[in-house]
Design a protein that fits this description.
alpha/beta
Amino acid sequence: MTDHIQFHHHGRFQVFGGVLPDAVTAYQTYGDVSNPCIVFPTCYGAKLGLGSQLYLVGDNKALDPAKYFVVTFALFCNGEPAPYNGPYFPAISYEDNIRAQYAVLRHLGVAKVRCVVGFSMGGQQAYHWAAVFPDFVERFVAICSSARTSPHNKCFLEGPKAALKAARDFYDGHYTSPPEVGIRAFARTYCAWAYGQTWFRHHLYKMDGIYPTLDAFIREAWEGRFVANWDANDMLALLDTWQRGDISLVRDGGNLANSLKTIAAKGLIMPSKTDLYFCPEDSVNEVSLLGDAELAVIDSVWGHAAGGGANAADVAFITKKIKEFLD
């Protein structure tokens, strides 16, 4: 098992907004390459180096390296490796990420992917895998996600984006030191969307006494995390990828219904009941159009965070459903 972060250099790599002179994909592998392959890409705010994927990867977890060859991938612009070219970094699409991940898998000797599993932006990658390489992927799991980023979702993202770009220390992306004011404004604007209203009503932000007040939670769990771990231009570049997400642009000229109907891979679609931006109604609509898909709603007050390992009960439900789906 090789669980340390590895880097695949693609050389010059064409992307949606131009060309990367030396594109690099960060990844980790778990288990024996002779086992069925599971792909588990990162979401917004996740990094391989922070262990963001480990809530589903490990002994007796949903993605057990004793049974599967698990490959976790970092999105382009997630800071692994370190960012470069600042505000001039070209726009990246999900399709760009999938083509890069495919190249890594072929380099590793993978001939077929048993399943792509993803949460949030990772789930959108799972959908794109099924659309971009339909003969390579047998199954996919989309957790708190969608095949197309909805207008409401795009609108929500405009708030934290505007807060960051308007900050006095952002300098249109040409900052020479981390724009902490802007990053903190971004995190403070973003954080309310990640959880359901009931979660706040029950004061679950106190996290069993870790945070004495709501403001302490916002400052430490959100502002502090982004300031410590993220580059501002990377944050905006990933938002751009997220807002552009739409599998129908890959091959169906914007016809989402047709794109969903033609997906051959078997799907497990797992929205959270209280998700405020990947709303469960969108998942219901998508499952009605997919040829072979199961809908499993996460009955949780944790909103979008329910799908990302935020609490043990939701992880147990997700794990059970994925294990059943893969057996």
